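User: For documentation purposes, I need each entry recorded in a consistent format: the amino acid sequence on its own, followed directly by the corresponding structure tokens. There are two entries in this batch. Please keep commentary to a minimum and don't merge the entries.

Assistant: Recorded as requested. Entry 1:
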Amino acid sequence: MRLKAGKKSLLLSLSFSLAFSFLAWAENKTAKDLPPKYKQWLEEEVVYIITPLEKDVFLRLETDRERDLFMEAFWRQRDPTPGTPVNEFKEEHDRRIQYVNRTFGRTTSLPGWKTDRGRFYILLGEPNDIERFTGEAEIYNTEVWFYQGLAKYGLPTGFYLLFYQKGGVGDYVLYSPASDGPQALLTTYLGDQANYLQAYRKLKKISPGLANVSLSLIPGESDRFGRPSLASDILLQNIQTIPEKEVKDRYAEKFLLYKNIVEVEYTANYIDSDSMIKIFQDPSGLYFVHYCIELNRFSVREHEGKYSTNLKLNGQVSDMSGKTIYQYEGSLPVGLDEDQLKNITYKPFELYDRFPLVPGNYKFSVLLKNEASQEFTSAEKDIVIPQDESSPRLSELLLGYKTEVSPGTGLKPFRLGQAQILCQPNKIFQRQDKLFLNFQVLGRTPELEQKGSIQFDILRQEEKVFSVTRKVSDYGNKLDILEEFPLANFSPGIYMMEVTLRSDRQALSTEREHFEITSVSSLPRPWVFSRTLFSVSHPAYSFAVGQQYFNQGQFDQALIRLERAYDTQPNSQEYALALARVYLILKEYEKAKKVLSPFQDSPEASYDVQFSLGRAHQGLGEFDQAISVFNKAITRFGTNTNLLNSLGESYYGRGALKEALAAWTKSLEINPDQKEIKDKVESLRKNDRDKFLRG
């Protein structure tokens, strides 16, 4: 990680990768639907360097503002020196386009960027060498470009590109040894297009070097084959995939996913990250989602020798239909002194966190924003919290490179028992490391305690290289199991940890996790910022779980948890309101009134408290009190349809029909599309007309 000092911030740059599942896209737009400015940008300025994913996302944007922000993000992701005022990549790209338009557009009606030479110049830049064959009687005008030093893109250490004037007219076109062959370069027709050897021999008499390139664009390869090489066409295809190798384009997915959620100033500033999300059970029986986010880039502000930033978390859990079950926010101040900053300069930054979640199938996403740099990243995963614990099974496996004893009752992410496991999403280890394996055996039975065993296997390419079996009884009644495996005897490579729970030799549950042993001598471990949370007995957990059950519509389960939270902290307006909402749904109006009444005259009483208290009075038939509460709410918070409709119902219940009519009429002025309220208003007006006619 490199440290770059700016005027107000320090940019700590990392390079770590993350595998991300592709979004399910809707039907695409086409470039012709775009305003001219953006159509030109897509079809001319970046046509060769934009990836398919980036193009797909750009075509799905709905406003010019979104397109402008995406274009800014597009160039930011390619900036080799983020944090500096110059984007060297964009400057070089603009130079290449100007060069090809000026140089290759002179001999053709096409603009230079549309020519074959222009396309490959934009992709690869200036060749190391160009050899031209012009004015020759026996071969068409030809250019041979030579490149080297592009192995970082998976290309050969050196290679050629050949362009020729097909048939002696028009612009130069790209030559393919397999599709065109040496005959295409000769002005004389030899009778058989497939007679490569005859054409090659004639071309070799004219120019041996050009003859070799005509068989293969890769130096030395033509000697091995004696005929045009398919490897050359593979090379040409690989060159055109360079844009996908130059940028991690999943930022485009994140842009589309979060463009309506993230503040405008953050939108273009997605930073790459890696993440890991695991589910473990607390000894209390409550399940927790543990997750870590490893940032690709971490920025801090400098002020008087101190370095700081504020990280903002926004998590959301929704069910498979998209209904929000749980949301949370957090603000995490990070402060460093000079020595601490130096200590982490070449290390990744990892954030650990955890939260409780009730049984169900969910989509989880968490947004992490860095206020110092106005950058954001995110993690997403489908997760399952099991409902049935009647059968023995294993939890997910957690592989760590270190453990830290963490005494006390506070909860820490990835702490199972007294040990917090330090882990990374990439699960890379050195041979001198110990691999720490943490997991849980859930749903234990007496039979499992007597006959159960746990088999640990390490596999490489599906072949066992290590195996050991232990009895379940060896671990006593521990929920959390920790094992360690020295890696000194394992050679570098990709491995799989496989753990199998058995009872009387029958496999009950198996969990697997890949890991890598690297040959590098030094592996920087991250600087971990781990949130420490309340102990599990804190009412905040009962409140969170109660809210989750409430959002799922499981009101009986919600009532148990929310009453527990309220009984612990009856002075909490938040707890009282959540409990009152359940009471209102269950038509326990007296109980709702009881928990909310202490807050009704408080200057901090929220709109929801006032409205819910009014509904409680209304449910009890206490219409005068309800009217008083609703009017206070209107005076303090202003009118809305819910308040006016409830006020109208209270007036109606008291028999004050004119006042009810006035409240509902005003509600319809705000929102005319309320059929039920319209019907009530028409009914009252009709009754009033009937009374007049009878009089």
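Entry 2:
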Amino acid sequence: MSAALFRHRCHRWFPGLLCVLLLLPGNVMATPDATPQATPLTLVTTFPYYELDVSLDPKTPALEGDLTLQWTNATGKTQSYLYFRLYPNAAYYTGGSLEVSDVHIDGRPVVTALADDTTVLQVTPGSPVAPGATVNISLHFVTIIPVDTPSGFGIFNHASTAGIWNLADWYPILAGWEPGSGWYLEPPTVFGDPTFSETATYRVTISTPDTLTIIATGAELSTSSGPASGTRISVYESGPAREFAMTLLEHAASPVEATTGPVTVRVTLPESQDTPGLATFMADTAARAMETYAAWMGDYPEPEFDLTVAALSGANGVSWSGMTWFGLDSITRDGTFSEEERTGLAFVILHEVGHQWIASIVGSNNNDHGFMSEGLVNALAVLAARDIFGPERAELYLYSWVAGPYSSLLNDKRDGIADAPITNDTNGVIRSLLIYGKAAVGFIAIQEAIGEDAFLRGLGDYAQEFRFRISTPEDLRRAFERASGMSLGPLWAFWFNEATATSADLEKVLTAWSSSVATPIAA
């Protein structure tokens, strides 16, 4: 496998100022060392190719259609079995399901079997697939869409009253492959949001009622009247992308656009949430963020980036390849867009746009190592805010919404390990404090230890080396070490693998950041 996907989200921001006013310095140091040897860059040249031809039945509601997948075995091992993830079968999607039939490989019918966890479908090829060999898989599927189900953060759901269809994980997708670990087949946890897959290219043809507006991963190639009255057929292409997600709106306002280089940023809101000034603010902020992140981590690979809404539960935003969904109910309820709301929404936009790079372009496993996506993006969002809005705003974000919630844990004389896999026994609140808060502080501590130039150089090298691939925490750490010529082992372990931080350690990082905040970060 070439790369893997994590799914990323930004939880509800914390209202008010939760600034920490701590005084004692910490004593965590990075140590000089010989510059680690750089490893050769290996970029993906062949991606899996999905073709989907589906139709939406809004009454059932269901998506039914055919999928073909051209897959080249890049795992480095002969594969006797292939595995598809059928995420709509997760128990928390009440009323949702995904059924697969008529599976063929290279035109021949093959044996399939559902695992005890029905989100895993095992497919047995007629003969094992050798490394470098290519197979063509075809299948038929029917996906039942849950209605008004907030579970799983609302990422796969028809919110009937709002007239919003959020469709993530709606089709069979080849399971992710982790070098050294193999196929990732872990059951979804009660927290939802399980997606893990490899970078692919897509061509999707979808038939829908012509009253629906489609916002999807990739770019629309064509649209035409369907064979049945009142239907429309739309064709999209995308890739390289981690998945293909869609939002369908029953009553959409006219989109608002901004541009950044060759990329069009488009915001499409429901008429009921088209608060004056909101869409323009979202488009402009996202475009400025994309310019900053592209300078640090390389070009954005698609010609379009879409922002739209979702009926989210427990999150303010969720990012997918080429698009981000925002929960805007609390902002649009009174029909006005206040300065306080602008400030809060701006950070969510910076965070979610950062996920287009970490870890959509640059892959990692959010189920096992959420800190290296959520924590790193939160740290980068603070740095981007300093470039875009100025040091005062960036300091507000760092103290209030990144470090502030985590400080509440330390003030209670508790800490936790940031680099820990999510399980059904995980305390979701504490995990959020660790991966969004502690981990972000840890990355800022690394930036302070090695300097901004080395930090951004390491980030850029990491983004290049693992563009469209899967990375591990060790890959990220080594990138910073190569850029700085320093060993980060103790510092890395302290913030990400241990649970011994104190309020004094947090304050040391914040004080150092504040003392340097007047110096802009060079792209």
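Summary note for entry 2:
Residues 1-45 have pLDDT under 50 and may be disordered.
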